[in-house]
């Protein structure tokens, strides 16, 4: 198992390129199950979750090749089972459920695993698919689904769910008749999935709104498609510039999709400008405290909550974070406190009182975004920080130490 050793206190200065979005690439890869022909995907990040997905697709009957951030997927004779050995490491694996039911009328998918940041039940997925004609049983930790065919339906989610919207969107494109998804998730990654399906011959309207209309088609062909850039990686590097009082140019930065984050960072005192080359960010003055409430898109993303909390630890005054998406997403707080942060939590609210400096310390990563927040804190801290259990980090950031070192950071990877 690897760990990162960070020597803090150095401003980050330079430019870096934002990678393709993991959270967009994963559902698009699972959507390849729906196709009759091969698809080529570009701008696919080289991440553990991506390779887990490619391995799972291979077990389901799709031939996959990955090279230089490009994936070639060729559908074959599909098999229905997504085994626990793979699914337990990645919650997104449940996204094969809708495509398998749409293509072969059966699926046996292990209940998903992933980061320990709270319950993310799949009941919204199952309820929607049942309205389309599927039937489910739970057996020894597996979801067993079957149907003769899927039919269009008018489905209203109890709450916006990204995974549920993606699963039902994929199922609906091959269903008989029309499907309407109400209270659908509006996240850019859902929109990117819809755009890929449209490139393959699907009929979809309303992506990016809370009401998506899908007219089922009999088949989908292959396509070439470039995955969107990763807005959470971009937001993390914006925060890295702020916490180190540096200046970064982020190429291929999805500025429009990051508005909720950039507005808060600007409120903290950072200067963020969109140029012809990318997004330029700098911070040469003390940060100010702000209040943040996580919300579904277009609100402030829960996946940036831990990172902005690291900034708050060094901001003047008091900041308040209200986490409304996941009930167990303050696991980074105790580790930040080990570095000298002053944070108090009560239920889903954290109050952060800014301090003048953080001190390096050994810390333990509990999930993907918590890992990123500890790296950010280590970049700003006096002395040496060891971030352990970074396998979480490798699920969502493409060799983060290489990118940060290219702009002046002092980070090395070692075996624990």
Automatic annotation (TrEMBL):
Pathway: Cell wall biogenesis; peptidoglycan biosynthesis
GO biological process assignments: cell division; cell wall organization; peptidoglycan biosynthetic process; regulation of cell shape; UDP-N-acetylgalactosamine biosynthetic process
Pfam families tied to this protein: EPSP_synthase
Transferase is among the record's keywords: yes
Enzyme class of the recorded protein, top EC level: transferase
Any one Gene Ontology molecular-function term assigned to this protein's record: UDP-N-acetylglucosamine 1-carboxyvinyltransferase activity
Modified positions (2-(S-cysteinyl)pyruvic acid O-phosphothioketal) in chain numbering: 115
Domain Enolpyruvate transferase as annotated: residue spans: 7-404
Enzyme nomenclature, EC number: 2.5.1.7
UniProt keyword Cell inner membrane present: no
Keywords from the UniProt entry: Cell cycle, Cell division, Cell shape, Cell wall biogenesis/degradation, Cytoplasm, Peptidoglycan synthesis, Pyruvate, Transferase
Ligand binding (phosphoenolpyruvate): 22-23
Annotated catalysed reactions: phosphoenolpyruvate + UDP-N-acetyl-alpha-D-glucosamine = UDP-N-acetyl-3-O-(1-carboxyvinyl)-alpha-D-glucosamine + phosphate
Positions bound to UDP-N-acetyl-alpha-D-glucosamine: 91, 120-124, 303, 325
Active site: 115 (proton donor)
Compartments in which it is found: Cytoplasm
Function: Cell wall formation. Adds enolpyruvyl to UDP-N-acetylglucosamine.
Protein name: UDP-N-acetylglucosamine 1-carboxyvinyltransferase
């Amino acid at each position: 198992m690897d760990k990162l050793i960070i020597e803090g206190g150095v401003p980050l200065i330079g430019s870096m390129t934002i990678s393709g979005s993991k959270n967009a690439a994963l559902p698009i890869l699972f959507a390849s199950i729906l196709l009759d022909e091969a698809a080529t995907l570009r701008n696919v990040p080289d991440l553990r979750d991506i390779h887990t997905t490619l391995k799972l697709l291979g077990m389901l009957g799709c031939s996959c090749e990955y090279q230089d951030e490009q994936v070639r997927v060729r559908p074959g004779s599909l098999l229905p089972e997504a085994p626990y050995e793979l699914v337990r490491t990645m919650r997104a694996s449940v996204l094969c459920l809708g495509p398998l039911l749409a293509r072969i009328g059966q699926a046996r998918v292990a209940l998903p695993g992933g980061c320990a940041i709270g319950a993310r039940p799949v009941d919204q997925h199952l309820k929607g698919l049942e309205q389309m004609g599927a039937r489910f049983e739970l057996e020894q930790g597996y979801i067993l689904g079957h149907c003769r065919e899927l039919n269009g339906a008018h489905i209203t989610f109890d709450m916006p769910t990204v995974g549920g919207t993606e699963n039902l969107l994929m199922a609906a494109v091959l269903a008989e008749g029309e499907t309407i998804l109400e209270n659908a998730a509006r996240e850019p990654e859902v929109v990117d999935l819809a755009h890929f399906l449209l490139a393959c011959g699907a009929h979809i309207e309303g992506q990016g709104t809370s009401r998506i209309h899908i007219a089922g088609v009999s088949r989908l062909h292959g396509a070439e498609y470039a995955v969107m850039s990763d807005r959470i990686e971009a937001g993390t590097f914006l925060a890295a510039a702020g916490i180190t009082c540096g200046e970064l140019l982020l190429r291929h930065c999805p500025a429009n999709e990051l508005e909720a984050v950039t507005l808060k960072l600007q409120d903290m005192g950072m200067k963020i400008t969109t140029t012809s080359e990318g997004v330029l960010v700098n911070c040469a003055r003390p940060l100010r405290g702000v209040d943040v409430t996580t919300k579904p898109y277009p609100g402030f993303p829960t996946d940036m909550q831990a990172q902005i909390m690291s900034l708050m630890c060094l901001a003047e005054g008091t900041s308040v974070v209200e986490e409304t998406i996941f009930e167990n997403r303050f696991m980074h707080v105790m580790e930040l406190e080990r570095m000298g942060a002053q944070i108090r939590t009560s239920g889903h609210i954290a109050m952060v009182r800014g301090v003048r400096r953080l001190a390096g310390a050994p810390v333990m990563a509990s999930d993907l975004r918590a890992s990123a927040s500890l790296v950010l804190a280590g970049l700003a801290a006096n002395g040496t920080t060891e971030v352990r259990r970074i396998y979480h980090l490798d699920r969502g950031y493409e060799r983060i130490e290489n990118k940060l070192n290219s702009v002046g950071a002092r980070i090395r990877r070692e075996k624990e």
